[in-house]
Amino acid sequence: MSGLAWIAVDWGTSHLRVWLMADDGSVLDRKECDQGMGRLTAADYERVLLEQVGAALPESGQIPVIVCGMAGSRQGWREAPYASTPCEAPSLAQATQVATADARLDVRILPGIKQERPADVMRGEETQIAGFLAQEPDFDGVLCLPGTHNKWVHISAREVVSFRTFMTGELFALIGGQSVLRHSLGDDGWDDAAFLDAVSQGMSHPAALGCDLFALRAESLLQGLSPATARARLSGQLIGMELTASRPYWLGQDVVVLGESGIAGAYMKALDAQGAMPRSVSAADITLRGLTAAFETLKETK
Known about the structure:
By secondary structure, the protein is α/β, with parallel strands linked by helices. The chain is 36% helix and 25% strand.
């Protein structure tokens, strides 16, 4: 591909996203497939990558390939050791280089971040953090990164000072898809008032979560609780319990939620109801901005 300068790769558990990049930072092409870490062995990665980018590679020379995410996990392509908090978002200088059979590929996997006490890890989110700091380098406060494993990250002086991970999104999926509540929840629809009431309930009485959840099933059987309302209440009770545990992160802090809709919007509403006054920023291509920041450090060394 004419003008190809480098390749950005976000390799998650379930999906692979690839951007073919020009030297000026413009995107020449974008590809995505379902060949995530969960479906691959270490021997599969180069083949899968070449299936996505092989036609664009030059006949000779090397193209830098900068990778973040689960390709660097112990079960991935090659383990990229964690950077330890407090630390800046990892740069290319800390990346793990991967030997490839195709000499045109210069593959480097960015490390994740670890925290010893309390024990916690992230892979992929550190690149989102780098992307955010590329546009707000003076930010001092807390980032909320909604997702399957929601993260609260304290940022100061461009460093990740500390962070905590909550399995709220995974619990919602497990409870909604595998427990008795699967018979009472809808796949879509929403009830804002019910969600905010449930957030308050989850914060006020987190120890009662087990019986409050079963009440959703009972109310659907006895009182005709709608599937949309039950879904909103389940989300609210779980997020409320999370907000209670994460209070030291968001109370009295400058809080930024990465994302503007979906689950990010739910966190915004829940925090607003607690008087936290969060703001949201677009998470569109924020991972690419972080990968681009890493590529810029490679250019500086040449």
